Every structure is written in structure tokens, then in C-alpha cells.
Amino acid sequence: MGSVYLGEHESIGSRVAVKVLHEHLARYPELVQRFHAEARAVNLIGHENIVSIYDLNAAALRPYLIMEYLEGAPLSAWVGTPLSAAAVIPVLSQVCDALEAAHARGIVHRDLKPDNIFLVKRGRGMPFVKVLDFGIAKLLDASMPETLAGIIVGTPEYMAPEQSLGRRLDGRADLYAMGVIAYQLLTGRLPFPDEGLTAQLVAHQTRQPPPLRSVQPGVPAAVEAVVLRALAKTPEERFPSALALRIALEQSLVVRTPPPRVGPVGASPSASPVPAAGGGRTPPPGGPQRTPPMAPPVAPPKASGRGTGGGSLPVQVLLHPGTQPLPFTGSDLSRGGVFLHATGELPPLFARVQVVLPLRTGPLAVTCEVVRHVSPEQARAWSMCPGFGVQFVAPSATLKARVEQHLSGAPASAPPTPRELPDDAEAERVLEAHRERPGGDGTHYTVLGLAPDVDMDAVRERARDVWTTLSALRHRPLSRGQQARLESLLGRVRDAGDTLGLPLRRARYDARLGNPRGVARCLEAGLTPGQAEALRREYLTEQPQAVGAARVHFLTGGALERDGQLQRALEAYERGLRLDPLELEYQQRHRVVGRALGARAAGARNERARFPGEGTGP
Which residues contact 73 (CB under 8 A, 6 or more apart)? Predict the structure, then answer.
């Protein structure tokens, strides 16, 4: 409905976002009234996970809203590559909080999609969610502007069946959109990739989505069940409220089955103590809070007589290289991981830690990854201990056999030697095609086989394609060496996609790489000047000598540009930008000179086409 501009208060310097109604829409009173309704809806709700609106002027020739200025990225920046449930669910839980507050006020969003969910970076914690664009939100019990006759409002890819059929809506229509968003983030694709408005609407009305695990096998079964229930065709089959959906999402990753809290839950949580895809900690209702440093139990109890997964056992954990190991109480041991009891500030999700397990066959040191947080509030709700779950990183057959023997209570004996499989020919062909060649630079671009100046959409598409191709090899009979190579390669592909697929992360990476053309792509994809300036300060702190050396090249380029020597000016700007890639003034000069050279070359080609015989020798 409108364009958004960055504004600044003249006297106090505070930044705001100014949303201006498009000129061609301002002459329609119904749409101006809907613009006004957005401000009213947002202020009625008044929730921290919904963008704040400070002021509006609906009487101007171009009506506008004064809104909270946000620095970060839309959730749509995450779309395209399958993400772990551990990364997705904490974000969706915050969206559920916003929806619960809106629905409690009788307001349905009606256009929930990744573009309308904004991720704000706050310190080193998880992204903080802001839900945007209540422009077509509807009050259920008040006279709000109605949809114009014959026009469907909303986005077809995320629209509940009852919405496209013109039936009465309630908050469960937003929960359907949440199901679509969750499906897309977890699998890397929409549930119905049909093209065209009619095909999309018919698919949502009549077809069942493919199970998530048929698209992305790594999605936990319990998470899949929750998402599919949110995508039920009728509102009655979905969750009764956003709060119920949030609880079901969080329960689907709990390390043990919790009692149901609100309403019926669509699927039993996974019985595995540490799910393969992990989980995430959701901020308490009051927003992100500081917690005291993590405190392990002072005196871990002795291991229980039976080696069951539910028994406790004393473990030693090395949280940081070079530090002393700390004693923890472990529980819910399985062949995939273990849960560690702790209070206070927990190690970050996806952090690597070393854990020493006191198995019957002797102590065993294992590299683990933190995949789940359980806060004291969640622990009380779910009748369990607070702490964090860790997953074994690439567990070997020997590790699994020793843990299995410990759990069975069998006396210590040499673990069975697994049968070694030969190399699989098809897998070898695929692995060889993606192997880094000798002399390669080892960058994320090399891992994905991309040029350093590729655009963001191509990065996401390539990362998704490579991940899909490699993931399919997990179902083949691989040798031990091939398994290790595959998991290593998948880890590098995931890291490359996560870094290059988000403008903020890619800009930081490209700056350190000395890749100004990559930074330019990030600016095209929505990196804000404020973000770029913050990244530049960070970069120059690491490379303080860069600014002076780059300045020499920038000044040289400016002199050459004024003298009309555009090709030499472009080369000088490039040399400077390789040293200081986030210098926005000279990114702009480089772009202007590049376009001028392109226009000059096009003019020369046209001239030769008009007079092909001139200027050639006999």
C-alpha cells in the first residue's frame, strides 16, 4: 500500500520510518481509511513484538504514518534453504506472542508472510521479532473498512482456505499462514509451489501439503505433526489459539514428553531426548532478559545403578578451549546426545563443547553441539530440570555401540566392529563433483561454486540445490570415509548458505574477504546505510590501516574521473574498495562510473552497427 522512507527528527536526531501511501491509492477513501486502520489496530494491540506507530496524517495529499525504525532483515531473507527447527521455532514463538495479543483484541492480521516479519538484532542473542503491516488487519467486532467487492486481499501463497473463499475469519486464519511460513522455513519451499493466483488458491482449498519429512528428512516428526495441524483445511482442525500453537511448537522439541498445557496438541513430542534438529529458547513474555552466568550443579549425584537414559550420571564439560572442565549432572542419555542440568546463562545454541561421559566401558570424550535450551520457566511448566541439550557431532558406530551397551546395563566388553561398506559409486561421483580442488581459496563462494559478485537470489537457489543433492546421499549405503566427507561437506554448504544468503552476514564476510562487488550485492538486497556503517566500524577496528591506504586510491580515482579517464578511475576505485569495501560514498562512485562506461561502450557498439564499414583497414 505504501513506500517506506528513513526519517530523522531535526532537533534530537532520532530515526523513524515514514510509511507514505502510494499516490495512485490516495484518491480512494476506502484505502485511506484502511491506512488509518493500520495505526488504530497496532495501537489497540500495543505489544513489543509488533512495530510501534507514533503518529499519522491521514488528511495530507499523501497520507503517511510515523513508525518505529528497525535495523535488521525481514524473515524472507531466511527463505530458500532448509533451516533447523532449532533456528525456526524461537522466531515463530515470538510471532505467536504477537498474534495472541492481536487476537485477544479481536484483530486478525490477514496478510502474515515472511516479508511482514522483521528480525531485529539485539546484542548477541537470538533475533527479536517485530510483526509489520497491519494494513489489511480486520477488527472482528467493529466497523473497519471492508474488502472492496470482488477483490481478494492477502497473499495467495499464505492464505487460509476460508479467506480465499470469502468466509468469516478469526485468528485461526493467521495460524494457517504460520503453518505455511513454518513449512517454508523448515523445508526450503512452499507447501504448494504452483504458479499463478488461481492455482495457488485452489491448492490451498483442496489439496493436502506433502509431509515435511518427504521434502526434508531432517525435520523432526513431532515438529512435522504440529505444522501439518496448523495447515488443516478447516479452522476447527487447527490449534484453537496462537498460544496453543506456540506451546505445541516448543513441546515438539522438548527432550522428554511434557504434559499438555493449553488445548489439544496435534502431535506427541518426540521421545528422543535430544532431537536431531535441536531447539531454541523462547524469551519470556516480558522480552529478552539478562540472566546470571550459568551455574552447573555443585555436587553431581552418582550415576544410577541402571544405565537407562533417564538416570542421572556425573559428566565433565569443557565449555571453552583452554579452560578447566566443569562438573554437570547429565540425564536422558541416548545414542544421539545427553541433557545437562544447569541454571543461569546457558552456552549459545550451536556452540561446540567437549563432554566426558562416564560409561561402563570407561570415560569417553565426545564433541557435542548445543541444540536445545530449557529455561527455568519452561522447566517448571514441563516438570523437568532447566539446562541444555547437546547432540553428539558425527557420532561413530563405536560411540553408539558403547552408549548402547551402557544403556543396556551389559558388562563391559569390546564393542562390536561394524561391517565396513565399500565406497558407493554414485555417491563418489557426486562427492567428487563437489570436492574442493587443489589450490582453491576455500571461501564460501568456492564451496557453492559461485562467482563472488553473484546476486542474493542466485546464492539461495544454489545453496538449496547443493544441499538437496548432497542430503539425498544420506539414504545411500556409504562407506565410513564417504559418510565423513559427506557430513563435512554438508556442514560447509550450510555455513556458506547461512552466511551468503543473508545481506548482513554476507556483507561482513565480503568485507573481510576484500570483495566489494559482493558488498554491492548486499546493498542491492536491502542492507541499510546504518547497518553498513556499523559493519565498517567493526571492520576498521580489525583493519585500522585499511582506511588510509584506501583513501589514496579513492582520491586518485576522483582525479581521474574529473579528467574523464573513466576506465582508470574505475580501476582505482576498485583498488580502494578492496581495502575498504564498506565505504558507501565510493561504492556509489564506483557504480556511477561503471554505468557511464557501460553506456559509452553501448553507444560505440551502436555506432559501429550503423556504419559497419567505417574505421576498418583495407
Answer: 118, 119, 502, 503, 504, 526
Partners of residue 6 on adjacent β-strands: 17
Cα–Cα distances in angstroms (integers) from residue 328 to residues 314, 318, 331, in the given order: 6, 10, 10
pTM of the model: 0.44
Number of H helices, E strands in the chain: 20, 15
**Is pLDDT above 90 for 351?**
no
First to last CA, the chain: 62
User: CATH topology for 72-251?
Assistant: Transferase(Phosphotransferase); domain 1 (1.10.510)
The per-residue DSSP string of 202-224 comes to HHHHH-PPPPHHHH-TTS-HHHH
Handedness of CA 91, 199, 458, 550 (dihedral sign): negative
CATH of the domain spanning 313-408, picked from 1.10.8.80, 2.40.10.220, 2.60.40.10, 3.30.70.1230: 2.40.10.220
Instruction: Summarize pLDDT for 28-49 with one digit per residue, the tens.
Output: 676 677 667 666 777 777 788 8
Q: Give the CATH class of 506-608.
A: mainly alpha
501-557 pLDDT, tens per residue?
888 889 999 999 999 999 999 988 888 888 888 889 889 988 888 888 889 999 999
The predicted pLDDT at position 559 comes to: 92
User: Is the pLDDT score of 347 beyond 50?
Assistant: yes
pLDDT score of 158 more than 90: yes
CA angle 44, 243, 178 (to 5 degrees): 85
Active-site hit among 97, 111, 510, 580: 111
66-85, pLDDT tens digit by residue?
888 888 889 998 888 899 89
Q: Are 341 and 386 in contact, with CB atoms under 8 Å apart? A: yes
Q: What is the pLDDT of residue 29?
A: 73
Does residue 141 surpass a pLDDT of 70?
no
With contact defined as beta carbons under 8 Å apart, do 181 and 112 qualify? yes
> Radius of gyration over alpha carbons of the chain, in Å?
28
Centre a 10 Å sphere on the Cβ of residue 616 and count the other Cβ atoms it contains.
7
What pLDDT does 35 receive? 65
- Name the burial class of residue 568, with classes exposed (0-12), middle (13-18) and buried (19+) by CB atoms within 10 angstroms of its CB: middle
Helix pair angle (29-45, 85-104), 10° resolution: 100
- In angstroms, the Cα distances linking 84 to 227, 406, 442, 494, 496 are 14, 30, 25, 10, 15
Q: For residue 417, which of 401, 406, 393 has the smallest C-alpha distance? A: 401
498 is catalytic: no
462/121 Cα distance (integer angstroms): 26
Long-range CB pairs of 608-611 (<8 Å, 24+ gap) are none
Q: Phi and psi dihedrals of 8, rounded to 5?
A: -140, 135
In the chain, where are the structural domains located? 72-251, 313-408, 444-501, 506-608
